[in-house]
Amino acid sequence: RGLCNVGSCVSNPHITDAGIRVANVFARRILSGNFKEIADYLLNYVGACGLVWGAYSQKAFSIGMSCHRLGVPAVLGPHSAKYRHLYLGLKENLESYNVRDIKDGSVHNLGPVPEHLIYVAESMEEAMVMCCKLCFRNNDLPEGRQLKITNYIDIYKKYYGRMPDDLHYYIRDEFDIPYAAKDEIMELLKAAGWEPKKPIKSPTLLDPKEIWTYEAMRQGKKWYTV
């Protein structure tokens, strides 16, 4: 009980371990027999991204697979393409990124975050940029989203020499815009026909009635005894 297969015994740091700890310690999510809820929490709340690089064996590939199964996007190196296993999103199809509000079950769209679950990068530069972009989450606070936008812009400019052309997907309202580049970003948003979106604090892909942590609380059970 409570075991999770995260790949083989090769030496590597597992971002999945840290994500599970965050869900348990900070959000009081029940771990026992509750994989789906933990994965949903990591996908919507924890700004993490796995990176699997270098020579590719089945062992290394299985580590990348363990990330996306738990709701953590993974960027894989070019040699992983031989396994022909990708989970790519299409940010133009925004309806596929809809989430629910845990409080009332209402449906919202806060942009394509994270855009992909399994992505193959052909170069180090592409991997660096994609890792930044896959750290966006629906639950980001304005201050956190500002930092992520700033990092994304800085790294994109460093490797591509220009501003990203998809910022309008990741900026929900004016509070997400980094102050240092606000004028330049506002011009890009206006050109893209951007409209502000209202953030929500409790996003989920699950039916709120099926979230076992809250059901256990309603039954008077403690999260650490279940």
Q: What does this entry show, briefly?
A:
The chain has 226 residues and is mainly alpha-helical. The protein has eight helices and six strands, in the order ααβαββββααααβα. The strands form two sheets. The protein has a three-stranded parallel beta sheet with strand order 1-2-5, sandwiched between helices. Strands 4-3-6 form a three-stranded antiparallel beta sheet.
Indicate the overall shape.
globular
Report mean pLDDT, rounded to a whole number. Answer: 86
Please list the strands of the largest sheet in the order they lie side by side: 1-2-5
The structure class reads mainly alpha
The ordered string of helix (H) and strand (E) elements is HHEHEEEEHHHHEH
Q: What is the rounded distance between the termini?
A: 12 Å
What is the number of domains? Answer: 1
* Main beta-sheet annotation: 3 strands, parallel
Q: Any low-confidence stretches, pLDDT <50, length ≥5? A: none
Number of separate helices: 8
Q: Let me know the number of strands.
A: 6
Radius of gyration: 18 Å
What fraction of the residues are assigned to beta strands by DSSP?
Answer: 5-15%
Helix fraction by DSSP (H/I, runs of at least 4)? 25-40%
